[in-house]
Write a structure and sequence with these properties.
- By secondary structure, the chain is α/β, with parallel strands linked by helices.
- Helices cover about 40% and strands about 15% of the residues.
- It has helices at about 15-20, 35-40, 55-70, 80-85, 95-110, 125-130, 140-155, 165-175, 185-210, 235-255, 260-270, 275-285, 330-345, 370-390, 430-440, and strands at about 5, 10-15, 75-80, 115-120, 160-165, 215-225, 225-230, 290-295, 300, 310-315, 350, 395-400, 420, 425-430, 445.
- The strands form four sheets. An eight-stranded parallel beta barrel has the order 2-3-4-5-6-8-11-12, surrounded by five helices. A three-stranded mixed sheet has the order 7-9-10, with helices on one face.
Length: about 450
C-alpha cells in the first residue's frame, strides 16, 4: 500500500547563508563571526573558508531554476545578518537587502514557497567585538530590531519564519567546546548565551505579532535526538527522559512554557540564568510551530556522578553510520515526533534531515548514492507513520539542497541532493535528488519498491 501524504504536506529543501552564499566581502557585506573564525589557524579542516562556498549569491537564479526543475515546493534559506546590516544594527546595506528581495521574487515566480531563517550562526562580527555578541543582554532587542526590519521587508511574500537555527549548537560548539565561532570555551558563559538567544527569540516574536501579519507563522528550529533508555529499568528510563529535556527541552520549554524544564533548574542551579516576569510572559506561547532538525538518536543510561544530569551515552556500534560518525536511526524520528507532540502539542516541520556520505562522482559529475536514498526513504517513512497516528507534521525539508561548507569540517562532508564541484561550481543533481523529485511528484512512497527506485 502506497504511503501518500496529505495534499497540504510541504516538500522542501534547506540551506544556510554562510554555507552556500560566498561573496563574503561583496556589495557592502560586513564580516560575520564565521568570516573571522575561519581565518584563525587550525580552526577549519584543510584551512577552508566560506568566502566563496557555492557562490549562491551570484548563482541564485540558476539554483532556483534547479529547484523548480526538481519540483521542490518550498525552500528554507537564511538571511545573512551582516549582509543586510554590516554592523548588526543601524544602517542597512541596500545591496545586500536587494539580494534577498530578488531571491524571494525568484522563488515566488517559480512557485516555491520561501521559509526564512533569520539567524543561522553568522553573527555580525561588529556585535561580537563591540558588546560580546550573544553574551550581552542588549543582543535581544538588537536582534528584534533586525528581525522586525526583515519582517517589514519580506512579509508581503513570506509567511513562514524561523528566528533561530539550532541554538544548542551555537552554545555547545561556540561556547562549551570552542569548535565553532566565536571559538570560546566557557561553560557558564555558554548558558548565558543560551539564555540571551531565548530572550532574543521572545523579543522578535513580540515584534512579529505586533504587526498582525495575515496567516504568517513563526517558530524556531531545534536540533535534538530521541533518547532510547539503555535498559527498561526505571533508572535508565528516567535518564533518557532527562536527556531529552536537557537537549530539546532546554530551548523549547522556555519558548513555549516560559521557563526551563524543572530538571534543568534542579540540577544546573546557578548555571541557568533567570527570566524576568515580563520575559516569561512574552515567551509563553511563543511558537506557532516547531522546526525539527533530526539526524540521529542516542542510547542513554543512568550514570551516577557523571555531570549534573548523570547521563552516559552507549555507543551504537552495530548500526551503520554516516561519514559524520552519526548512527542511522530512522525510527528514532517517529518516536521523537510522538514525544514532541505529546509534550508541546505544536505543529511540526522537519526543517532538516539528511546524511553526509563519501560521494563518488563519475566523469560527468553525477553521483549514484543509494545509501542516501535509503536514508531519506526510511526517515520519510517514519514521518509518514507519525502523521498516520495523528502527529501534526506539516512538511519535510531535506538537508541540503547542495553540497556546501560544513562549518569546522570545511568542504570534506557532503550532504547535498545536488553535487557542487567546489573547483568549477558546477551543479549536478545526484541520484538522490532525482529520487526526491519523484517522491514529490507522487506525494509519497511505495513501500514495495526497491530503495533505489523512485517511489
Amino acid at each position: 500500500m502506497a504511503m501518500r501524504f496529505p495534499d497540504t504536506f510541504l516538500w522542501g529543501t534547506a540551506t544556510s547563508a554562510y554555507q552556500i552564499e560566498g561573496a563574503a566581502d561583496v556589495d557592502g557585506k560586513g564580516p560575520s563571526t564565521w568570516d573571522t573564525f575561519c581565518v584563525q589557524p587550525g580552526a577549519i579542516a584543510h584551512g577552508d573558508t566560506g568566502a566563496r562556498a557555492c557562490d549562491h549569491y551570484h548563482r541564485y537564479a540558476e539554483d532556483v531554476a534547479l529547484m523548480q526543475s526538481m519540483g521542490i515546493q518550498a525552500y528554507r534559506f537564511s538571511v545573512s545578518w551582516p549582509r543586510v546590516m554590516p554592523t548588526g544594527r543601524g544602517e542597512v546595506n541596500r545591496a545586500g537587502l536587494d539580494f534577498y528581495d530578488r531571491l524571494v521574487d525568484a522563488l515566488c515566480a517559480a512557485g516555491i514557497r520561501p521559509m526564512v531563517t533569520l539567524y543561522h550562526w553568522d553573527l555580525p562580527d561588529a556585535l561580537q567585538r563591540d558588546i560580546g555578541g550573544w553574551a550581552h543582554r542588549d543582543i535581544a532587542p538588537i536582534f528584534a530590531d533586525y528581525a522586525e526590519f526583515m519582517f517589514k521587508t519580506l512579509s508581503d511574500r513570506v509567511d513562514l519564519w524561523i528566528t533561530l537555527n539550532e541554538p544548542w549548537c551555537v552554545v555547545d560548539g561556540g561556547y562549551f567546546n570552542g569548535v565553532h565561532a566565536p571559538g570560546i570555551k566557557d561553560r557558564r558563559l555558554g548558558y548565558q548565551v543560551g539564555h540571551n538567544l531565548i530572550r532574543a527569540h521572545g523579543a522578535a516574536v513580540a515584534r512579529f505579532r505586533s504587526m498582525s501579519l495575515d496567516n504568517a507563522q513563526i517558530g524556531f528550529a531545534v536540533n535534538t535526538t530521541f533518547s532510547y533508555p539503555a535498559t527498561d529499568t526505571p533508572a535508565d528510563r528516567a535518564a533518557a527522559e532527562r536527556a531529552m529535556l536537557n537537549f530539546a527541552g532546554w530551548f523549547i520549554e522556555p519558548m513555549h512554557f516560559g521557563d526551563y524544564p524543572d530538571v534543568m533548574r534542579e540540577r544546573l542551579g546557578s548555571l541557568l540564568p533567570t527570566f524576568t516576569s515580563e520575559e516569561t510572559a512574552s515567551l509563553r506561547g511563543g511558537l506557532d510551530f516547531l522546526g525539527l532538525n533530526y539526524y540521529f538518536s542516542d542510547v542513554v543510561r543512568h550514570a551516577p556522578g557523571e555531570g549534573e544530569m548523570e547521563l552516559a551515552l552507549i555507543p551504537q556500534r552495530d548500526l551503520p553510520h554516516t561519514t559524520m560518525g552519526w548512527p542511522i536511526t530512522p525510527d528514532g524520528l517517529r518516536l521523537l515526533l510522538h514525544w514532541l507532540a505529546a509534550r508541546y502539542g505544536l505543529p511540526i516541520y522537519i526543517t532538516e534531515n539528511g546524511c553526509a556520505l563519501d560521494d563518488v562522482a563519475d566523469d560527468a559529475g553525477r553521483v549514484d548514492d543509494p545509501v542516501r536514498i535509503r536514508y531519506l526513504r526510511d526517515h520519510i517513512a517514519s514521518v509518514y507513520a507519525a502523521v498516520q497516528s495523528g502527529v501534526d507534521v506539516r512538511g519535510y525539508f531535506a538537508w541540503s539542497l547542495m553540497d556546501n561548507f560544513e562549518w569546522s569540517l570545511g568542504y570534506a562532508k557532503r550532504f547535498g541532493l545536488v553535487r557542487c564541484d567546489f573547483e568549477t561550481l558546477q551543479r549536478t543533481v545526484k541520484a538522490s535528488g532525482e529520487w526526491y523529485a519523484a517522491l514529490i511528484r507522487a506525494n509519497g512512497l511505495n513501500p514495495a519498491a526497491r530503495a533505489e527506485s523512485a517511489v
